[in-house]
Design brief:
CATH class of the largest domain: Alpha Beta
Number of helices: 14
Radius of gyration: 24 Å
Shape: globular
CATH topology of the largest domain: Aminopeptidase
Largest sheet: 9 strands, mixed
Length: 533
């Protein structure tokens, strides 16, 4: 990575050279901070929200959160609009697995969770002989599932429970897929953020989907998928892959499927190979019903009196207080910004549909409010602040899930364009003086063999990222991101770090944009780097 000062001056027109420092100093001087009362309220809201349990799309807990946030935004003085939707919600309630052995013994086996949207067995479950389909492989080239790797030959004629190993893809944020644009405090990415070259994470199971419709036509009644090279604790209750049946969600798949840990999978395979298993019973009681869900858009008017705006974006549904703490982040920011109103407008968008299996499009708000995109001078996506890093430790040969002693890297997606370069430098500079524990890497998804690399984040953030709107998407990605946890993820949340992240990478960043766009001299008016009106 070339030195910051050189790259900044290469990309910024000469007019900016003497003006940028003043704009940065103005922003630093005027950026709001969270008071002690703000910070206590931030803590309390997170704690109390966590007590209510997961906020799945359209459940009471999610709707309570969005209602409280929208009321509080309005009370703080913002103009609030609520977009209402209905969705057919799939609701997993009870699940279990047992094997009936040929000696008459019934063995109950532990599971790590269920395959979302796979089906509904009712409380009676589905009973059928087990067929070992081998390994559900991953392509080394595409990092996607290879469905043809499953052995579906000689399936039992009267139905079967399909069993297979299910290794997770690995991932990285390196070339050719991702270009590194910068790091916090110019730290060395290779030594300080080694995850950039090998980001192991159960979350990549989201890339492995099954054609349940085809499996059903082959007589498959249920599925047992075994985690590989992942501890049971790391695999526990991962809501993966988040892929619902085609259509609006009113019709679900009909192949109830469960996950088991690696050791349980080895036990099942051994018993089947030795001919000791008569059949398996898979219980996944998961009824579905229509519910409502809501996107909240809150508008903070700037003092300049223009239509220009910054979009600050997140989602409100997920299994843990890490995955969807975004609404409380945005509310906390808004309440502080009201006291020190910036020149530019800010639109806080809290979308829904993130955990809906694709049945509720998170981008619907863009069609309802095209003016926001038309007027946006920048967009910031904020998710998963305060995440403590946990990883499987393989030092003993057996994976042990434990904290690494670090915070999760702040992966920041950014669009790599000439219009965005300058703002990216401002974002990176916002980390000057932050604590050593805050590790940020800004990466830009590249086009490889004609295909865009994935822009990760709340649904719709990729639309912003692939547009001409300068966009940064802040998305720490802990292993437990989509996992339900007994404590809701509270033990893995560092609130002090979340507060530092609010101050550094949001307040300082978009208030610098406001200063550059709307100071007395209109520094960036009419330039090509930031399209201020």
């Amino acid at each position: 990575m070339e030195p910051r000062s050189r790259s900044l001056y290469l990309r910024v027109p000469f007019l900016f050279h003497s003006l940028v420092p003043s704009a940065l100093s103005v922003a630093a001087a005027t950026a709001p901070t969270l008071t002690q009362a703000d910070q206590q309220r931030f803590h309390d809201r997170l704690w109390q929200t966590n007590l209510r349990g997961p906020r799945w799309t359209g459940n009471d807990n999610q709707n309570t959160l969005t209602s409280l946030v929208s009321q509080s935004m309005q009370f703080a003085g913002l103009d609030v609009q609520i977009l209402n939707y209905t969705i057919d919600r799939w609701d997993p309630q009870w699940w279990s697995l047992s094997l009936a052995l040929k000696n008459g013994t019934v063995v109950g086996l532990p599971t790590t969770g269920y395959w979302p949207y796979s089906g509904d067995s009712g409380v009676a479950g589905v009973t059928a002989p087990i067929h070992d389909a081998g390994t559900f492989s991953v392509s080394d080239v595409t990092e996607k599932a290879v469905n043809s790797s499953l052995n579906l030959q000689n399936l039992p004629a009267n139905g079967s429970v399909l069993f297979f190993d299910n290794p997770s893809p690995t991932h990285n944020y390196s070339l050719p897929g991702y270009k590194l644009l910068g790091t916090s405090r110019d730290i060395d990415a290779v030594t300080e953020i080694p995850e950039i070259g090998n980001l192991t994470n159960p979350h990549w199971q989201s890339a492995k989907t099954l054609d349940f419709t085809s499996l059903k036509t082959l007589g498959v009644s249920a599925v047992i998928a075994s985690w590989v090279n992942t501890s049971d604790d790391d695999a526990a209750l991962q809501f993966l892959p988040n892929d619902g049946a085609p259509g609006n969600g009113s019709i679900h798949y009909d192949v109830p499927s469960l996950y088991v840990g690696n050791s349980t999978g080895e036990l099942i395979r051994g018993l089947v190979a030795s001919g000791e298993v008569d059949n398996a019973t898979v219980v996944l009681n998961a009824p579905s019903y229509e519910v409502s869900s809501h996107t909240v858009i809150s508008h903070l008017s700037g003092t300049a009196g223009t239509n220009d705006t910054i979009i600050v974006y997140t989602h409100s549904d997920g299994p843990s207080i890490i995955e969807e703490n975004g609404p409380i982040l945005l509310l906390t920011m808004a309440e502080a910004l009201v006291r020190q109103r910036p020149s530019i407008n800010i639109d806080f968008v809290i979308t829904t549909g993130h955990m809906s299996g694709g049945h509720l499009n998170e981008s619907n708000w863009m069609a309802s409010r095209p003016d926001l995109l038309a007027n946006a001078k920048a967009a910031v996506v904020c998710e998963h602040f305060g995440a403590i890093e946990w990883k499987d430790d393989f030092s003993t040969g057996i994976p042990v899930y434990q904290p690494t002693g670090r915070l999760e890297p702040m992966w920041t997606m950014a669009n790599d364009s000439s219009a965005s370069d300058f703002l990216h430098e401002l974002y990176i500079d916002a980390f000057n003086g932050t604590s050593d524990s805050l590790r940020m890497a800004m990466v830009s998804p590249q086009v490889v063999d004609g295909t865009k690399s994935t822009w990760y984040g709340a649904g719709g953030s990729s639309i912003l990222g692939y547009s001409n709107i300068p966009t940064v998407g802040i998305i720490p990605q802990p292993d437990y991101l989509w996992a339900s946890m007994v404590d809701g993820g509270w033990s893995r949340l560092n609130i002090s770090e979340a507060i530092e992240q609010i101050h550094s990478c949001t307040f300082n960043y978009y208030l610098t944009i406001a200063s550059l766009c709307f100071d007395d001299r209109h520094i960036l008016q009419g330039t090509s780097s930031i399209p201020c009106s």
